[in-house]
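call fold(seq) -> tokens
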Amino acid sequence: MAEEKKEKKKVVREKYPMREQPPAERVRNYKEVPYGYDVETAVAEASRCLACKDSPCIGGCPVEIDIPAFVRAIADRDFAEAIRVMKSYNNLPAVCGRVCPQETQCEQLCILGKKFEPVAIGRLERFIADYDYEHKVAPPPKIDPPKGKKVAVVGAGPAGLTAAGDLARMGYGVVLYEAFHDTGGVLRYGIPEFRLPKAILDKEVDYVRSLGVKVECNMVIGKVFTVEELLGEMGFGAVFIGTGAGLPRWMGVPGENLIGVYSSNEWLTRINLMRAYEFPKYDTPIWPGKNVIVIGGGNTAMDSVRTALRMGADKASIYYRRSEKEMPARVEEYHHAQQEGVQFRFLVAPTKVMGTDDGWVRGMEFVEMELGEPDESGRGRPIEKKGSNFEVDCDMVVVAVGTFPNPIIPEATPRLELTKWRTIKVDEETGASSIPGVFAGGDIVTGGATVISAMGAGKRAARGIDAYLSGNK
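ret:
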């Protein structure tokens, strides 16, 4: 008898959706917006994976996760294996599953996505991380025998946490120095509670600590100790710098010093670190406007404007100098902002902030723009339309147009070679700087970028440090 033909797998064309808080409810609270997958939905979504031979999705992951392996394990309901695979590559899976732009990285390369919607890799990553925190199914991490050498990691943001965790796994004694009173960097002070709950971040940091990383907060390296002192009398064999890009970038227009103009850094940091999301339990010294304008079109602008609504604004708007198509924010964040009632005005640029006689913001002046030939970013260059100026009323402005690198360590380390943008110049593959034994990665090298790109830099630098300390320079 002829062997029966194997039944062809039926392809589910669309991602299984995540349930979310209704917009009318969530816009007045700080609870997480998506609820995440339950077990059955996660298994069904993982079963959409085609198990491609070449696994192109891995090439789109900055931290090099074996995506088919962890997805396949979820489909097989082997959740312990799924989280084992995940955590062997990624120290912060619950973070990445929430804030990583998978749609432009791993999911963009998914073969299924060529005809239908790609596998929801990010949602599955969040699922397996949350499942592990609830059920504790992950086996103990594999840690190499102690090498008898110490590494200092400066900055407990995504780059530093990744480098510290990987180096601890390799057997190094790691001390992680953080300038703030708590860990997380941009994960804690720059991303709102409704996108990344602090309780989730705390669990991720505790996991990094469990690998053997010693964390010391309130330590401003460059002031308390210099990098040269860490390498010298303090006995560290190498130093990794992951201090981010926390210096605000401004618009450069008249009126930016008026009361009611915030940088996105100050606005989000005050609300996150001073717990305005738990008001009135915590009384935060910040003045929230009722008619708020946010300048910018990235994820930080979306975080700022959605936070303004939750802080009690009656109207919150985004003003962006390019078109909707060029806006760098994640599609998901843009969609959520639209659902919540945020208003958008495209192809406009600020020319001045207007104030009252006693120094408060009362409005802004803008000029209309049109897009010319592409600039170095590959997007159309905004060109001003002469005579198209117009005024808009507002009582608060948040400037979210980018950041500069934190200057403390570069200024305190004369031998450190910098780029013209004042970022640290490093070897792209190893993170090695101009000073032997000093490595760097994340926003202090690239300028403001994504969480996952900083994590990828931390991972590459950990390998570079291991090679350096092992004599494989």
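The longest helix spans residues 451-469.
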